[in-house]
Amino acid sequence: MRFDSHVEALLAASVGLVNHLTPGHDGITPVEAPSGRERRATCARVLVSLGRSPAVTPTQGAELAAYAVLVREVYVATATGAVDDAARLVNDLLRRTGARPQLDLAPDGWGLHFHGPDDGLVVGWSAGIAAALALCLGSDLAGVLGICSADPCDRVFVDGSKNVTRRFCSTRCQNRVKAAAHRRRP
Prior knowledge:
Blueprint: H1 5-21, E1 24-25, E2 30-31, H2 36-46, H3 58-79, H4 83-97, E3 100-106, E4 109-115, H5 121-137, E5 145-147, E6 156-158, H6 171-184
Helix pairs in contact: 1-2, 1-3, 1-5, 2-3, 3-4, 3-5, 4-5
């Protein structure tokens, strides 16, 4: 990947929120959006920062789940080649979250981070994710946002490969597709 570790962490969080909080299919089984305690625990696992898992309230879990649905739309638009639509969606996310750049001192030096106006859990992470998606779309890296090519899987991923050729959300989906292709050979 060609981003700093902060942006990579935000993109990973976007993938985690979309893949674990939105309904769809993981290639083997349908994925239901979690609710209640399970949703809060999922958010806490996904939003680990500097080794700390946040305490997520029921309201925050619901807000993050709703945000994940919007972020999924960005991945879908990008993966289908509708980059203009993806850019409009990201601009909307940036406006909604009030993302603003700020230099923060970290153990390894100063880094550019994006915060929302209140820097609470939901707005803080949402603003950062919106900014990370904007950095992808505003560069030659729009193609790193993808949706799994293994039918019927619809999980998303960020392609960190050098040549940006990743097609699958996981090794499991990749192996499943390769095995099916092998079985079809005469």
